[in-house]
Specification:
The complex is a heterodimer of chains A (about 220) and B (about 260). Chain A is an alpha+beta fold. Chain A has 8 helices and 6 strands. A 6-stranded mixed beta sheet of chain A has the order 1-2-3-4-5-6. Chain B has helices spanning about 1-15, 50-75, 80-90, 95-105, 105-125, 130-135, 145-150, 170-180, 185-190, 195-220, 225-240, and strands at about 160, 165-170. In chain B, strand 1 and strand 2 form a beta hairpin. In chain B, helix 7 (about 145-150) crosses helix 8. Chain B is globular. Classes of the chains: A alpha+beta (about 220), B mainly alpha (about 260).
Chain lengths: ~220, ~260
Amino acid sequence: MNYKQFLHSKSLWLALAAAVFFLVLIPLTASGQQTKVSMPENPAAEVKFIGTLAEDALAIIDDQGLSRLEKRDKLQTLLEENFALKSIAKFSLGRYWRVLEEGQKEQYFDLFERYVANVYTKRFENYSGESIDITGTATSSNDDVVIASLVKPSNSAPVNVKWRVRTQNGKTKVVDVIVEEVSMSVSTRSEFSSIIQRGGGTTVEPLLNYLDRDLEEVKAEEAQ
Amino acid sequence: MKQFLYSLTIGLMTFGSMPAFADHHKSASGAKSGDTQISERGYSDPIEPVNRFIFGFNQLTNEYVFHPFIDGYRFVVPYQGRKVVTNFVRNLRSPENFANHLLQGDFKGAGHVLFRFTVNTLTGFGGLLDVAEWEGYEYREEDFGQTMAVWGVADGPYIVMPVFGPASLRDGLGYAADAYANPFGRYADNTDDEALGNQLMGLGLLNQKEALKDFQEDLYQNSVDPYVRMRNTVFQRRQAQIHDRGAESSSAQPDIPSYDF
């Protein structure tokens, strides 16, 4: 039969279905339900830092004995210790940092930290059986170290996640997370900027109100 | 007209206007312009109200039509099987991929694409298996929008298309050009083979939606402003594709202050 008849025929689609079915029978390299973090041998300090952070976070998430609220609180503590949250918060306001009044700073930082903890807790709720391979490091232009990792969910495509780590004054903290070449800090800044702009651009109030309302909603949900 | 729409959709769906989750390489050629500092840049958005409306429409169709369907698809077909579909769809786009590498002066990259197409088609059951990947020749994608960017064409305004999703004007036109040039689409068009056109379109759309589902869900549920976050993500992602920034690169760092140190 000619090419056109073949493509029209059921054979092509049978072949495709067979290939799919065949691959179902191939033993999948599932690692079971425990999530694993792998690092290269003799890891550099920053690589170890990320590896440890990942392991600690996963220990909290996989802990069946903790309630959602307890997990969130523990994750928030972990975030506060290992992420430069105030720096990221400042960056996320962009040019509106100057508009922020002294009295609002503490409130903003508090809201930001709780907001980030909430978002990551929600994201990790659907986590199961993933593995994280820490693959390498590269030093970026301003002496921050970027650590490349591959997050491999058990049933979908791997995701490139890069961690930008800064060590200063004896402290090592994550300053940005880059998922598939998209900086989370930059996209957060674009969102915050939009909220502030639409509220007039002269005050950070609309953003603070939004974050506050969002956190109240989450609290209300949890109370149920 | 109908046939043109088929080939258009094939192209737009196969590689889409959203993050393609494809691995990229550091460009071997010097054809790309240098990396630029990420400042508060992004797409210009002169028709934002219109875009927001279409974004809202896309969100509804995603949440109520495409995502539930993808859940079903994932339930029935495990990851390895879905990878087969991805491989097949990507292989079909090899002609444009090849041509765009050449147009950007990346002859080594073009050879890479040709190698992948030959190996995967001949030994990978017509592109179902990505054999070349196992040999270290990973998937690389260049589309006409990237080619135009390399030539110096500016992004143009941000446009959200119904179903197809968002892109800059230049990139949207680039996708359309690639779609029209795709030989498989041309074949379906020229032979008036509607069934083939439909099948190719369906596969491309399925693959596209599956790849984007998790990201879109996260965007809709965990964003302060999903529309703006989408626009910024598309922009960042596109910049990385144009400058061939991949997993190994660490350039283009935003200027994060040291407030906590």
